[in-house]
Amino acid sequence: MSERFEPTSLDKLEKQYDLVVIGSGSAGLTTAIKAAELGLHPVILEKMLTVGGDTKRASSGMNAAETFVQTEQGIQDSVGQFYYETLRGGHGQNDPDLLKYFTEHGARAASGSTKKGSNLTT
């Protein structure tokens, strides 16, 4: 995907898109990028003047365990530890199956984000 995303006003938008994505946070951008990779023609609608949505305001980037960043920095972590810390943080109210999926796939998501240009080290 070689196209660059640039802000534009509503009156300059094309008339037809395959997918309308609301918000340019990590979920919105990921959705639009994947759609474009699959050959769709997406548009992202963002209320702010800059790209990033609430993700841009997040102080810690992304929660994941056993990531390449942790490995590079010598940080000891595990998926199991991440699971139990997140379960405790959610006061035991987390859906166990969703939490298991989330903790087991976080490192892969982090890796995919950085391949698309995200900086998770700050």
UniProtKB/TrEMBL annotation:
TM region(s), chain numbering: none
Keyword Coiled coil carried by entry: no
InterPro entries (UniProt xref): FAD-dep_OxRdtase_2_FAD-bd (IPR003953), FAD-oxidoreductase_2 (IPR050315), FAD/NAD-bd_sf (IPR036188)
Signal peptide segment: none
Cofactors, names only: FAD
Entry-linked Pfam families: FAD_binding_2 (PF00890)
Superkingdom as given in the UniProt entry: Bacteria
Gene3D superfamilies: FAD/NAD(P)-binding domain
Gene Ontology MF terms: oxidoreductase activity
Protein name: Flavocytochrome c
Source organism phylogeny: Bacteria, Bacillati, Bacillota, Bacilli, Lactobacillales
